[in-house]
Each structure stands twice: as structure tokens, then as C-alpha cells.
């Protein structure tokens, strides 16, 4: 099981990040040789094999995460600001605002970053392979067909999985598997190449860790421990309120 309490994933830290970056670039370069084969092969699967992936791929949409978390954050934060009387209710509302704000910032922040990179790189999608090939780029000024790298769905799926891992570790494996299958689905449905998916996974994970670490520095929802690990502080007031409502 991955230790999600570490400041960065997979042993990454401030000292060795250049080595990790170099290895990641090398992995992308090696994977490039399989991009076309994997993409074209998956797109020729029978419809019965592709349909489940066409359903699963929607897990990578950000709307189902951002819309609820955004609405809850706005309502809870406004209520907290205008409710001046100190009480367990106000504390629970504050915790709810932090919780929804973290989810929105992690998924939305990585989403903004990946969309900027899509436009910056301007890689052609598999849909235009016959006309342009797999390595044609239209930098900055491009449309949907030239926004393949990195994969936005893969970024969102991995960011969501890591968010769940930070807040409810027991469900991390489930959401991680869903994220991995979502990444595969992006290749099967013909919207991305494997390198797009790998880059999306990396952005989703690193971006979410960065948001978590920022929250920890502000002591919002998380706490930086003396040993360098970051712990979820929990939402005790909100938990008690929910338990009372259910009993």
C-alpha cells in the first residue's frame, strides 16, 4: 500500500526531483515508440469490447466532482462568514468548507494546469492520425483535435483518486483502479495516446500532493508532522453532527 502521508509520492523530494524528471522524460520517450501501435490496435477492437470503456471513461469528467464540491464550498463558506455566533454548528460548517474547498482546489487546480499544457503542446489526437500522424503539433493556437497531451480525463481521475486517498485511505485502492481503467479507456475510445495518459496521471498525482501540502502549511484540514509527513486532521465537529443526524 502506498504511504500517502509522505510529503511527495514515490520517494520524490526537493533533492532528487531532477532525477525523477529525467526518468519520467525517458519513460515518455520510450513509450512514444508504442503510442501508434497501442492506439491503432485498441481502436480496432470489436464494439462489444470497447463499450465498457466508453462507459468508464466518463469517470474522468471533472463536472461530477467540481460542481458539487464548488456549490458546497460556496454555501458553507458564506454561512460560516455570516454566522458569527460560536457553536458546534459553526465549527462543523467551517470543516465542511475546508473539505469541499480542498476537493475543488485539487481537482480544479490540476484541471486548469492540464488545459494550459494541452494548448501549449498542441499535439494531434488519434482522430487526426491519418492526416497528420502522431507527432504533429499546433502550439498555442489550436482546437480540440490538437489538445491530446496530456490527457485531461486521466489527470482528473488520478487527482480524484489521490484526494480520496488523503481523506479516506480505505477507499484509495478502489479509486486508483478506477483511475487506471479510465486512463486505458482514453486510448481505447480513440481520444488519446498512452503517453498522454501517463503524463495526465503524473500531473494529477503531483498537483494534488502540492495542493495538500499548501493546505498543510496553512493548517487547513491537514497537519505537517515533525518527521516530514502530512496527516489528515479529520473533521470531528462535522462527523459528530452527521452522526447525531443519523441517530
Outline the secondary-structure elements.
Blueprint: H1 17-43, H2 47-56, H3 63-82, H4 88-121, H5 129-132, H6 152-167, H7 172-188, H8 194-217, E1 222-224, E2 230-232, H9 236-246
Describe the structure.
The chain has nine helices and two strands, in the order ααααααααββα. The chain is mainly alpha-helical and 247 residues long. It has one domain: Up-down Bundle (Vanadium-containing Chloroperoxidase, domain 1), CATH 1.20.144. Strands 1-2 form a two-stranded antiparallel sheet. The chain starts with 16 loop residues before the first helix and ends with a helix.
Quick structural summary:
The chain is mostly helical and 247 residues long.
Instruction: Indicate the CATH topology.
Output: Vanadium-containing Chloroperoxidase, domain 1
* Beta-strand percent range: under 5%
**Using DSSP, what is the number of strands?**
2
How many structural domains are formed by the residues?
Answer: 1
Tally of helical runs: 9
What is the SS-derived class?
Answer: mainly alpha
**What is the topology, as strand order, of the major beta sheet?**
1-2
CATH class group: Mainly Alpha
The residue fraction in helices comes out at 55-70%
Shape: elongated
Low-confidence stretches: none
So, CATH architecture? Up-down Bundle
Q: Can you give the mean pLDDT?
A: 93
Report how far the terminal alpha carbons are from each other: 34 Å
Succession of helices and strands: HHHHHHHHEEH
Radius of gyration: 20 Å
Largest sheet: 2 strands, antiparallel
Amino acid at each position: 500500500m502506498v504511504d500517502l502521508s509522505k510529503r511527495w509520492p514515490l520517494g520524490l523530494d526537493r533533492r532528487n526531483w531532477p532525477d525523477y524528471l529525467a526518468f519520467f522524460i525517458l519513460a515518455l520517450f520510450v513509450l512514444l515508440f508504442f503510442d501508434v501501435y497501442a492506439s491503432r490496435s485498441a481502436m480496432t477492437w470489436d464494439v462489444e469490447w470497447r463499450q465498457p470503456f466508453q462507459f468508464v471513461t466518463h469517470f474522468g469528467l471533472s463536472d461530477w466532482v467540481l460542481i458539487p464540491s464548488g456549490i458546497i464550498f460556496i454555501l458553507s463558506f458564506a454561512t460560516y462568514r455570516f454566522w458569527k455566533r460560536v457553536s458546534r454548528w459553526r465549527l462543523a460548517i467551517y470543516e465542511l468548507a475546508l473539505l469541499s474547498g480542498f476537493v475543488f482546489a485539487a481537482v480544479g487546480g490540476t484541471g486548469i494546469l492540464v488545459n494550459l499544457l494541452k494548448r501549449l503542446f498542441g499535439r494531434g489526437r488519434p482522430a487526426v492520425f491519418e492526416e497528420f500522424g502522431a507527432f504533429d503539433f499546433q502550439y498555442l493556437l489550436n482546437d480540440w483535435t490538437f489538445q491530446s497531451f496530456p490527457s485531461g480525463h486521466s489527470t482528473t481521475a488520478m487527482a480524484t483518486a489521490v484526494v480520496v486517498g488523503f481523506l479516506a485511505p480505505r477507499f484509495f485502492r478502489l479509486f486508483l483502479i478506477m483511475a487506471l481503467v479510465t486512463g486505458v479507456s482514453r486510448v481505447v475510445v480513440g481520444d488519446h495516446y498512452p503517453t498522454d495518459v501517463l503524463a495526465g496521471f503524473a500531473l494529477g498525482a503531483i498537483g494534488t500532493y502540492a495542493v495538500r501540502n499548501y493546505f498543510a502549511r496553512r493548517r487547513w484540514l491537514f497537519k505537517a508532522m515533525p518527521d516530514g509527513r502530512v496527516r489528515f486532521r479529520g473533521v470531528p465537529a462535522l462527523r459528530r453532527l452527521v452522526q447525531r443526524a443519523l441517530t
